[in-house]
């Protein structure tokens, strides 16, 4: 890349990108998409109404400060406005966090395998990724992560539950880890799937943020709230961090549609969390069925399950696609499968039965 334009940063050379003009493979029009951890339920009528009303002002820029949404979040979580920042999905906020804290010569620590965006956004910033392998049980190795922190570490991501394994870290081990992190190192608790957690030992990151100035919580409207296509996420963090996020935000990055839909979703939270409850039941059904078929599946606290397939991964994903469900393969490792509508999950379970 720097060969064609010496002004482009060398770090960008190794970063994968989508191919312009080529839609992401979707397995044909009839396929169920279980590859992106989306919510299978369509938007609530009230949420659609709020979006339709907002559409009348398409000729205007959105409210840059996301005032209504910020106020709603402030009430909902009991945090001051100065401790909040919104962004274009939580991945957008994560990118801003790195941009605000790390650059060339700095290090960003995270577990691996984990959310695929971490290496990409770290590389974009020019900072260095320090990947700490998951335990053999596919859980964060928090002791090893604490050991990996140096005086160059600016940021640590803890993905809880972890994407793609669905595994969690519990209160005691997380507190012990946080005690070991230096005060000038920011710990980002990425809680994109928080609402799907049923394990009572998993702490709410917002409670940890209240006690610790170097903890920042990332949440999203994309999963439990079903607004993945509208791109809105947010951070709860102490003042200097939240202010840095507001400074690094793309101006007008959260559309008015997204803001209104997020507000309407927070107001319809009971109904949306009821849907989450149904998906959690489906998760239990899928995991139980897989185990009954003889698969070893880690305990998932998210809206997806992780199936280790090693060298058979790509063939398995192709068999799924053939059967009518699209899953997410990680070549040589395994597949991540979203818990979707019952019919989609049934198709997936037929493939696993045949494959075992
Ligand atoms: N964090 C994790 C762990 C995720 O899996 C995802 C989405 N796949 C995100 C953040 C980003 O979600 P969004 O940008 O849609 O809020």
Automatic annotation (TrEMBL):
Q: Provide the reaction this enzyme catalyses.
A: an aromatic L-alpha-amino acid + 2-oxoglutarate = an aromatic oxo-acid + L-glutamate
* Biological processes annotated in GO: L-histidine biosynthetic process
Alphabetized GO MF terms:
aromatic-amino-acid transaminase activity; histidinol-phosphate transaminase activity; pyridoxal phosphate binding
Q: Which residues carry this modification: N6-(pyridoxal phosphate)lysine?
A: 223
EC number(s) in its UniProt entry? 2.6.1.57
Instruction: Tell me the cofactors it needs.
Output: pyridoxal 5'-phosphate
Q: Which UniProt keywords apply?
A: Aminotransferase, Pyridoxal phosphate, Transferase
Signal peptide extent: none
Q: Where is the Aminotransferase class I/classII large domain?
A: 33-349
Q: Does the keyword S-adenosyl-L-methionine apply?
A: no
From which domain of life does this come?
Bacteria
**HAMAP family, from UniProt?**
HisC_aminotrans_2 (MF_01023), Phe_aminotrans_2 (MF_01513)
What does the record note on quaternary structure?
Answer: Homodimer.
Similarity annotation: Belongs to the class-II pyridoxal-phosphate-dependent aminotransferase family.
Role description: Aminotransferase that catalyzes the conversion of aromatic amino acids and 2-oxoglutarate into corresponding aromatic oxo acids and L-glutamate.
- This chain's protein is named Aromatic amino acid aminotransferase
Q: Which organism is it from?
A: Streptomyces lasalocidi
Top-level taxonomy: Bacteria, Bacillati, Actinomycetota, Actinomycetes, Kitasatosporales
Task: State which gene encodes it.
Answer: hisC
């Amino acid at each position: 890349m720097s060969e064609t334009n010496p002004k482009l940063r060398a770090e960008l050379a190794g970063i994968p990108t989508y191919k312009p003009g080529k839609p992401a493979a979707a397995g044909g029009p009839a396929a169920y998409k279980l590859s992106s951890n989306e919510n299978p339920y369509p938007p609530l009528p009230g949420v659609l109404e709020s979006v339709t009303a907002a559409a009348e002002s398409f000729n205007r820029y959105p409210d840059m400060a996301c005032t209504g949404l910020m106020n709603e979040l402030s009430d909902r979580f009991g945090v001051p406005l100065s401790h909040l920042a919104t962004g274009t999905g939580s991945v957008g906020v994560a990118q801003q966090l790195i941009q605000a804290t790390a650059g060339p010569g700095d290090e960003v620590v995270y577990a691996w395998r984990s959310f695929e965006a971490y290496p990409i956004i770290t590389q974009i910033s020019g900072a260095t990724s320090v990947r700490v392998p998951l335990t053999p049980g596919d859980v964060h190795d928090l002791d090893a992560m604490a050991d990996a922190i140096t005086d160059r570490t600016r940021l640590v991501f803890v993905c809880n539950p972890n994407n793609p394994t669905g595994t969690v870290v519990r209160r005691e081990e997380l507190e012990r880890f946080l005690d070991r992190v230096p005060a000038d190192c920011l710990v980002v608790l990425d809680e994109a799937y928080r609402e799907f957690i049923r394990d009572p030992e998993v702490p709410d990151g917002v409670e940890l943020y209240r006690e610790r100035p170097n903890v920042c919580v990332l949440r999203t409207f994309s999963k439990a709230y079903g607004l993945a296509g509208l791109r809105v996420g947010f951070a709860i963090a102490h003042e200097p961090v939240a202010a840095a996020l507001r400074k690094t935000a793309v101006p007008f990055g959260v559309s008015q549609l997204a803001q209104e839909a997020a507000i309407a979703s927070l107001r319809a939270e009971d109904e949306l969390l009821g849907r989450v409850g149904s998906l959690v039941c489906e998760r239990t059904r899928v995991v139980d069925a897989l185990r009954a078929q003889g698969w070893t599946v880690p305990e998932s606290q998210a809206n997806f399950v992780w199936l280790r397939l090693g060298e058979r991964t790509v063939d398995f994903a192709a068999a799924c696609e053939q059967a009518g469900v699209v899953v997410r393969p990680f070549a040589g490792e395994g597949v991540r499968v979203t818990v979707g509508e019952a019919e989609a999950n049934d198709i997936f379970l037929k493939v696993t039965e045949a494959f075992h």
